Amino acid sequence: MSYPVESNPRFENYAHPEALVSTQWVAENLGQPGLVLMECNEDILLYSTGHIEGAVKIDWHTELNHPDNRDYINGSEMAKLLSSKGISREDTIVLYGDKSNWWATYAMWVFKLFGHEDIRIMDGGRSKWVEEGRALTKDVPERSVTDYPVIARDDSSIRAFKDDVLAHFGKPMIDVRSPAEYTGEKLHMPDYPNEGASRGGHIPTARSVPWSKAVNEDQTFKTIEELNQIYRVDAGISDASDVIAYCRIGERSSHTWFVLTYLLGIPKVRNYDGSWTEWGSTVRVPIVKGEEPGAVPVGF
Amino acid sequence: MSTTPGAQEIISAFAEVPQNLKLELLLEYSENLPDLPERYKDHPELLERVEECQSPVYLFVELDEQNIVNIFLTAPDEAPTTKGFASLLQLALDQQPADTVLNFDDSFVDALGITDLVSPLRIRGLQGMLMRIKRQVKEKMI
Prior knowledge:
Helices cover about 25% and strands about 10% of the residues of chain A.
């Protein structure tokens, strides 16, 4: 049985309030059996400088990504990884991290490829916890090794590949990068390294909805009314939509995937993790520059 | 390609610790990055942004009459990996002759044995800092 859900008026109007917890709730539930806190950051050393008591570290790059192929680890590798971290299939995982929870939602998305059922995001992430003056520790928890089962990774429902995108022109597609990346003015997000895209612009017909529209200044998620306005009214997404979201390498679009799936309750949302670093370097795929989504390309 | 006593010391330090403690060592270095002197703290516009880094990292290079290099680097506490890299370069290159800095081995970081631990993507920030240090030295040489 999974851990009791937080009852919080702030979350109750979201489609899946059970997918969020507040910093206060985390503080009140520290160390409870069946509940595993997990920190996932952009910076690999940040956890070591201090983390929430009992939190396990997970690194998106060195642990979740395949070491050689541009892909994720497989079922047996995931079983080994989570077993070594002392996590059981039945555990409730609460993820949080730096950078507005980009990597926390990315890790959640990867775990969902393996169908781990109960995963929640700490609203506001690491920075909110720190801003509130809550305690951090350098103590690394010692958890007994578990026997996490080998589950085959299922890429069919929440992951999109380049060929899926090629067949998706004209259907709801969201580019969650910064406006300058969308127009093609910049190849990578402001202040970030270029990770290899050789062309700038966006995928034809994709609408620009930067991920950051979904969060408040303290990095918590906006209210359901605000989110409905942004995604349903302005971007034209409905429950019937088949949505693909992408960014640069799939981290910011995991954030939007979370918002669309768990806060708005859109049933079919896929994250295209190849994202711009794949599309912008692929030979003979169409690209649109400028502020307009562009027309459905002919002959693709 | 040249090296420096500071760089050699860092390489030995990383070689001496086992694989599973190398990241901890990088963290220790990150904690020892000196603060910027007052004259730069008050004048952030003098500092150059290292765009290859995923966090706001700034650097400034000064050369004295003998072309000895002074390096100033700053990185946020929330980005300890980047701060650690900044600290390594500061220790390796500060107070060295300009020629030594210009010829400094670009593959320095490979000798630390941390590329797989940190991931190559994250290593790129360090290369960006080194590249910009060298460029500033070249521009400022007398």
